[in-house]
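Figure 3 (text version): structure tokens given as input.
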């Protein structure tokens, strides 16, 4: 029996790798059934591109029919992924002075700081240049306590939860209705903020890694505080999960929140050059509910972390005073998103 030649072994290995990648893409679509399967969904785009690239040369081999099927499958996966999640669409800029129906536009800055960020001065400079009304941070380690104290006069209202991997909220606007709270060892921080009379629940979230880390159980334990969020709320944070994953949608469902269109890849392994940011993962998410209208979301320049900052501009629709004399009240329909011409 003639042993297989080296070129043939290469073709067989490429075929096996293509099938494995296609199966991993497929497994991710069943993430709602298992956290193990959902772990594959976060790399859906990467696996689909790799499978498609392997399929191209195999079109000239004896495996051409299977390769063609995988190529079509990979193309369909990419075609059904919004361009914004791939970082291919530019964000829409909000009007700086007024939002829908003349409501003021507020700014929220979201960023995983990285606990050992070597250039904290870049973060402070970023805050100074963007002038956000509210800030949600993750990984505010002890190092960051002294750094953030430098802007304490500008953000006198704050809550920091859980140490190195916990969540933090800073605000120019006062906290109301009691003390802000921490949940699940600091994975979630919640504060009610007064925005010129409109009361908004603001949450910062930092989930652990997906399977085999117990992210799914962490999400389950957050169901209570998320369900207790007020009628109007905005949540931002590092979810360590892609926006199309079952984990993110489960998290949103527990708070009756809407997952906002992704700004594209925000995380990249810190040892890789920033030029490869397009190949990173879109794991920093923004959620909203009720009278919150998101006008724009955009990534900002790197500030020393392995995560990019995100600047969100939003307004809050004022609610009509409750009439206690009525026995029934109509539910307020959720706010519609501001026009995202390019799904940014």
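Below: residues designed for each position.
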């Amino acid at each position: 029996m003639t042993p297989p030649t080296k070129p043939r072994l290469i073709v067989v290995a490429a075929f096996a790798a293509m099938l494995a990648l296609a199966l991993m893409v497929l497994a991710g679509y069943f993430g709602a059934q298992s956290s193990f399967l959902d772990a594959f969904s976060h790399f859906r785009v990467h696996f689909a591109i790799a499978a498609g690239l392997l399929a191209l040369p195999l079109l000239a081999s004896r495996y051409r029919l299977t390769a063609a099927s995988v190529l079509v499958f990979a193309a369909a996966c990419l075609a059904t992924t919004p361009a914004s999640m791939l970082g291919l669409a530019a964000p829409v800029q909000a009007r700086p002075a007024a939002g829908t129906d003349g409501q003021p536009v507020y700014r929220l800055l979201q960023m995983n700081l990285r606990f050992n960020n070597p250039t904290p001065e870049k973060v402070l400079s970023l805050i100074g240049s963007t002038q956000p009304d509210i800030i949600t941070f993750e990984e505010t380690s002890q190092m960051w306590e002294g750094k953030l104290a430098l802007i304490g006069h500008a953000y006198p209202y704050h809550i920091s939860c859980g140490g190195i991997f916990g969540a933090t909220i800073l605000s120019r606007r006062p906290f109301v209705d009691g003390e802000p709270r921490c949940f699940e060892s600091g994975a979630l921080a919640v504060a009610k903020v007064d925005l010129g009379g409109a009361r908004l629940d603001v949450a910062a979230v930092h989930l652990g890694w997906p399977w085999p880390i117990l992210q799914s159980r962490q999400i389950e334990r957050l169901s209570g505080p998320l369900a207790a969020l007020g009628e109007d709320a905005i949540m931002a944070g590092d979810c360590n999960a892609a926006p199309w994953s079952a984990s993110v949608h489960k998290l949103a469902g527990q708070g009756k929140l809407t997952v906002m269109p992704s700004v594209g890849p925000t995380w990249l392994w810190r040892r890789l050059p920033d030029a490869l940011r397009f190949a990173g993962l879109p794991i920093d998410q923004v959620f909203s509910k009720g009278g919150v209208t998101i006008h724009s979301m955009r990534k900002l320049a790197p500030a020393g972390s392995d995560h990019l900052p995100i600047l969100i501009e939003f307004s809050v629709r004022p609610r009509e005073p409750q009439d206690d004399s009525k026995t029934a009240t109509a539910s307020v329909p959720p706010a519609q998103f501001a026009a995202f011409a390019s799904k940014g």
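The longest helix spans residues 6-28.
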